[in-house]
């Protein structure tokens, strides 16, 4: 019998991020506490730019955006937001969406699987994802449960389970 396998990835649906950003922009334009503070959120190339005329307001814009991301099922671990920076009279926050598992993080996950997972599990790093394979599907389920119980500083999804 052939080995069963699945991939561990860290991907974000770009359309869902765009939808969350548009919802946040709409809420910011309509909310009373954002009137007259120059609050805005938009794409700036590959980064997300949040602006307002005070540090508190720009942090509130970030909070609104984070709320919309959570409602759309996107992990906040994939959002890398910087600190508010004063630029002229405006405060700005640049945020980016992190995708892919770095080599060092993939090695950490593979080590956890080898050390704590069932015997006979193979974990191979393939670019920015990790392929986990085994003869037993029950062992693969145990690995998924093990990794879901851990708190990593990056988002994980389990795909291509076969």
UniProtKB/TrEMBL annotation:
InterPro entries: UPF0234-like_C, UPF0234_N, YajQ-like_sf, YajQ/Smlt4090-like. Keywords: Nucleotide-binding. GO terms for molecular function: nucleotide binding. Pfam families: YajQ (PF04461). GO terms for cellular component: cytosol. It comes from the Bacteria. The keyword Magnesium does not apply. Belongs to the YajQ family. Nucleotide-binding protein. PANTHER family: UPF0234 PROTEIN YAJQ (PTHR30476). This is Nucleotide-binding protein WN71_013310. It comes from Streptomyces mangrovisoli.
């Amino acid at each position: 019998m052939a080995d069963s396998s699945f991939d561990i990835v860290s991907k974000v649906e770009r359309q869902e991020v765009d939808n969350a950003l548009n919802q946040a922009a709409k809420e910011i334009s309509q909310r009373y506490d954002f009137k007259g503070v120059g609050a805005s959120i938009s794409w700036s190339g590959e980064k997300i730019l949040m602006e307002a005329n005070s540090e508190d307001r720009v942090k509130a814009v970030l909070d609104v955006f984070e709320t919309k991301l959570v409602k759309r099922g996107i992990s906040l671990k994939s959002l890398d937001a910087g600190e508010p920076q004063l630029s002229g009279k405006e405060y700005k926050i640049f945020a980016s969406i992190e995708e892919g598992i770095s080599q060092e993080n993939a090695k950490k996950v593979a080590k956890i699987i080898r050390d704590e997972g069932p015997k006979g599990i193979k974990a191979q790093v393939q670019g920015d994802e990790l392929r986990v394979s085994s003869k037993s599907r029950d062992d693969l389920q145990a690995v998924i449960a093990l990794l879901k119980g851990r708190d990593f500083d990056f988002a994980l999804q389990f795909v291509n389970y076969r």
